[in-house]
Design brief:
about 130 residues, mainly alpha
Length: about 130
């Protein structure tokens, strides 16, 4: 009987998740200071863009949370759970008051860093084929 393997058991997927999570983590840490300096406009264009962004974040966060919930591999749970949490924090940033934006930006950067570290562990644990 074949055991069910996780998504990050595939080395190519693990490498792509490592690269994308590392880029997202670096991007999030670099842009923490600019999170407070960019006011969110209340114009119609900005609101429609925010609606599209929030919808995208909800969809991708739901997919990540589903993978984290259903997977048996612990690295899948950590990586996709951290991605879902990071996207949830991005949604909260869009609707939160300006006083807690920096806290949310730091938490989001930490989630992406956790996902990158767990992806690195997944890459080192997978065997080359």
């Amino acid at each position: 009987m074949k055991t069910e393997q996780g998504l990050l058991h595939n080395r190519a997927i693990a490498m792509s998740m490592l690269v994308s999570c590392t880029v997202a983590a670096v991007w999030a840490w670099v842009h923490i200071n600019t999170a407070t300096q960019q006011p969110l406009d209340a114009t119609a264009t900005q609101q429609s863009t925010n609606a599209v962004e929030v919808s995208f974040f909800v969809l991708v966060g739901f997919i990540g949370a589903s993978i984290a919930y259903r997977s048996r591999l612990w690295t899948d749970r950590v990586v996709f759970g951290a991605i879902a949490a990071g996207l949830g924090l991005a949604i909260l940033r869009r609707v939160s008051p300006p006083s807690i934006i920096v806290i949310l930006a730091i938490a989001k950067a930490a989630m992406w860093s956790i996902a990158a570290c767990a992806s690195l562990v997944a890459v080192t644990l997978t065997r080359r084929r």
